[in-house]
Amino acid sequence: MEPGSADLTNPQTPVRLDEVDRKILSLLQQDASLSLDQIADRVGASKTPVWNRIRKLREAGVIRRQVAILDPNALGLEACFFVLIRTSEHDKDWAARFLKALREREEVVEAHRLAGDIDYILKVQVKNARAYDRFYQSLIGEVKIHNVTALLSMEEIKATSALPIPQAGR
């Protein structure tokens, strides 16, 4: 399975977290480059138990991976489009071709299958409108799409990769 993709046939039971786990996860979401010593110091525990907790959180799938988050503007990727896709195709072969096409395009930074009137939403990060048009032309050249609406983000108001960490009993 692709990193970041959900396996809806095998829903994962939520992992029980205590206060120290929540603190560790919160720190890692803010800055995954913190040393083990720094994390242990901030959560008030020693290094070995903190390392064991992090290892168990990885094994349980709570921590998927650690990455660097890049600034798209610094890379010249100043245009962010949200692409709403409706399709009249819902067979397995079409879906496989569509998902393959999305996974092969690095400018697609997020893709979601939706419930409701829109079938899919994509977040596409590109240099400019011309680059988006090249992406669009290439995509529709590979897979049949009934309707596409592209929305240009004028301003990013909030973006975070940090998830809310449920408190015990919630």
Please outline what is shown here:
With 170 residues, the chain is α+β, with helices and mostly antiparallel strands. Helix content is 35%, strand content 16%.
Structure notes:
- This protein has two domains: 19-59, Orthogonal Bundle (Arc Repressor Mutant, subunit A), CATH 1.10.10; 73-152, Lrp/AsnC effector binding domain/regulation of amino acid metabolism (RAM) domain (Alpha-Beta Plaits).
- Helices cover 35% and strands 16% of the residues.
- It has a four-stranded antiparallel β-sheet.
- The model is unreliable at 1-8 (pLDDT under 50).
- It is α+β, with helices and mostly antiparallel strands.
- The protein is elongated, with a radius of gyration of 20 Å.
- It holds the Pfam family AsnC_trans_reg.
- Residues 17-78 form the HTH asnC-type domain.
- This is Lrp/AsnC family transcriptional regulator.
Helix and strand topology:
Layout: H1 19-30, H2 36-43, H3 47-59, E1 79-86, H4 92-103, E2 108-113, E3 120-126, H5 129-142, E4 147-152
Antiparallel strand pairs: 1-3, 1-4, 2-3
Pfam families: AsnC_trans_reg (PF01037), HTH_24 (PF13412)
GO molecular function, one term: sequence-specific DNA binding
InterPro entries: ArsR-like_HTH (IPR011991), AsnC-type_HTH_dom (IPR000485), Dimeric_a/b-barrel (IPR011008), Tscrpt_reg_AsnC-like (IPR019888), Tscrpt_reg_AsnC/Lrp_C (IPR019887), WH-like_DNA-bd_sf (IPR036388), WH_DNA-bd_sf (IPR036390)
